[in-house]
Design brief:
Number of strands: 6
Order of helices and strands: EEEEEE
Shape: globular
Number of helices: 0
Number of domains: 1
Helix content: under 10%
Strand content: 25-35%
Strand order of the largest sheet: 1-4
C-alpha cells in the first residue's frame, strides 16, 4: 500500500479523517449509523467516531487482509482519544522485513 511511496521524511500519515473520502483505502465494518466522520471542536479537526460493540464495528487498514502497508519508518505513533468510561479495544499486527511478527492486543 505504501511500499512504493516516498517515506524519507520525518513521518508518513496513514490514517487520517481529512479529505473527501478518507476511508476509501480502509475496510470499514459496521453500519454508517455507528461509524462516521465528524468535526471535533476540541481537537479542531475531523475525527472518526465508532460506537457500539468493538466486535462488530471496526476499521481495518489495509483494506484487504493479504495486502501489506509496507511502512519503513522507525516509529509508529497512534493518536487516539477515548472518552472517560468508554470501552476501547485494538489489535495491531507488525511484520518486520526479517520475517518476524509481533501482535499487540489491548482493551
Amino acid at each position: 500500500m505504501f511500499k512504493n511511496e516516498y517515506q524519507g521524511g520525518a513521518f508518513v500519515e496513514i490514517f487520517s479523517a481529512q479529505g473527501k473520502n478518507p476511508g476509501a483505502k480502509w475496510k470499514i465494518l459496521g453500519s454508517p449509523s455507528v461509524i462516521w466522520k465528524e468535526f471535533d471542536k476540541e481537537v479542531k479537526s475531523f475525527v472518526f467516531v465508532l460506537e457500539g460493540s468493538s466486535q462488530t464495528n471496526k476499521i481495518q487498514l489495509p483494506k484487504e487482509n493479504k495486502q501489506i502497508l509496507g511502512l519503513i519508518q522507525r516509529f509508529l505513533v497512534l493518536q487516539i482519544y477515548i472518552p472517560l468510561g468508554q470501552d476501547f479495544s485494538t489489535e495491531l499486527l507488525i511484520n518486520s522485513t526479517h520475517e518476524w511478527t509481533t501482535a499487540f492486543l489491548g482493551e
